[in-house]
């Protein structure tokens, strides 16, 4: 297929054709993905989101990849729900370093009635700071999605994680159908969906293709598709899984880009384990979003100044928030860069 053939938004993907996309020669796949990418996006813009864990550890779910599951001993310090004011301070810091979206995550099976008022206050406060809002709190019912949407929540993150066939090897306490139900409530409420998965859990090519088919065959594509590389955490059952071939990870991003041409595809967890060349390849394959700031939820992420330097070397501009003045945003980023440059820890590889 040529890289410039018009890409249509499809919802009827079948396993054989998706596998054929994956199995193309690498250069052909990247060329095709970059062609699709350019039909819908500025290829030199990347969206930046910052994560915060608002409730950490002791989760009743048994997700085998997760350092926060109460089923495994990972030595993580548990924390109860953060105070609203502390969350807003963290959001203001994220804004100051140039982030446009603030994603709050809680290690819950689902939010309880007593926690909801605090969560809604967090959404309102973060929104008032001029940031896009995102939350990931586990399973939701219809009443909760309506309340979050009314408070101004822009995105809800709820990952399918893997194919329906492989899912039972990874999680037994929540079903795939539960996840699809939460996604349908999020859609009904008018919020945008962020949903993706993880590579490196011992899944097959069929499972990787199967995950993308589930996401792309939803009635509407998720607006945001995070593709995580497993962060192997000691104490979790997946701590000793084999590394994913870096080129296979890039293939996943490229196929996601082709199947969901208008979605933001996020090069998500695992960037600390990737070199700059691999991240550049990820952007070439059509990834156009990252988590920005030194921490994911409980594990590390590259330092913000390192990411800004990489963007500068690649000629990438951070994407401005919708309805946000590009110049104001750019000024904030440049100010953050100047401040970092004055710090002793900053090494300017371009000087
Ligand atoms: N507890 C909520 C839930 O699972 O719905 C929200 C937080 S949970 C940590 C959000 C997502 O982070 C998971 O669905 C999973 O895809 C990702 N994740 C968790 N641990 C990870 C790890 N070690 N490596 C990569 N991704 C991970
Ligand atoms: C997503 O897909 N990845 C993020 C976010 N959504 C919530 C979480 C990654 C977590 C990595 C392990 C940790 O830091 O605890
Ligand atoms: Fe709990 Fe979410 Fe971790 Fe699963 S991924 S154990 S639901 S925090």
Automatic annotation (TrEMBL):
Its cofactor is [4Fe-4S] cluster; [2Fe-2S] cluster. [4Fe-4S] cluster binds at residues 59, 63, 66. It catalyses: (4R,5S)-dethiobiotin + (sulfur carrier)-SH + 2 reduced [2Fe-2S]-[ferredoxin] + 2 S-adenosyl-L-methionine = (sulfur carrier)-H + biotin + 2 5'-deoxyadenosine + 2 L-methionine + 2 oxidized [2Fe-2S]-[ferredoxin]. GO terms for molecular function: 2 iron, 2 sulfur cluster binding; 4 iron, 4 sulfur cluster binding; biotin synthase activity; iron ion binding. GO terms for biological process: biotin biosynthetic process. [2Fe-2S] cluster binds at residues 103, 134, 194, 266. Its EC number is 2.8.1.6. Transmembrane segments: none annotated. Binds 1 [4Fe-4S] cluster. The cluster is coordinated with 3 cysteines and an exchangeable S-adenosyl-L-methionine. Binds 1 [2Fe-2S] cluster. The cluster is coordinated with 3 cysteines and 1 arginine. It comes from the Bacteria. Gene3D superfamilies: Aldolase class I. Pathway: Cofactor biosynthesis; biotin biosynthesis; biotin from 7,8-diaminononanoate: step 2/2. Residues 44-262 form the Radical SAM core domain. Keywords: 2Fe-2S, 4Fe-4S, Biotin biosynthesis, Iron, Iron-sulfur, Metal-binding, S-adenosyl-L-methionine, Transferase. Catalyzes the conversion of dethiobiotin (DTB) to biotin by the insertion of a sulfur atom into dethiobiotin via a radical-based mechanism. Homodimer. Belongs to the radical SAM superfamily. Biotin synthase family. This is Biotin synthase.
